[in-house]
Amino acid sequence: MKQQAGSIRIGWVIEYKNKPWTVTKTNFVKPGKGGAFMQVEMKSVEEGTKTNERFRTEDMVEKMMVETKDCQFLFEDSNSLNFMENETFEQFSMPSDILGDSRPFLTDGMQVKASVIDGKPISIELPLQVICTVTETEPVIKGQTVSSSYKPAILDNGVRTTVPPFVGTGDKIVVATADASYVERAK
Question: Which of 184, 72, 181, 53 minimizes the C-alpha distance to 124?
């Protein structure tokens, strides 16, 4: 299925140079001069090698048709992540680096989607957003409302991000797993 390169997400399996590649990291770049592009880090499904590729946002990429299964994250051991299929209760493991920079958002018992080709799991896709607790940030200033300036914060999983001035230590916020950006306060 053809997709615009600007919509590539971590966990997708795309066809590149006639081979399946799992997307492990994405970065949308909008330079001051020239067109926007996606910087994509991929891992080969067959060989396990990694590569970086730059796609213009309007380029079309082939998102491979793979079977998607709902799974649950069980635990992490020395160098692998262990999951269980929700329907069959079969367990399988994936390399710890399969999620790239999104790894800290994976928590025990989290529901994820596994992409499967020929009965073999090849990638894991996290939910688009998760709820995290702010463990460290500058104090809230009374009367301060939303403004364009964000302040640095550290989340309960150790990830550094930026939050609006009204968010304080101990607040629960919704964070995008793709780029660790603040979305909104959790309800």
Answer: 72
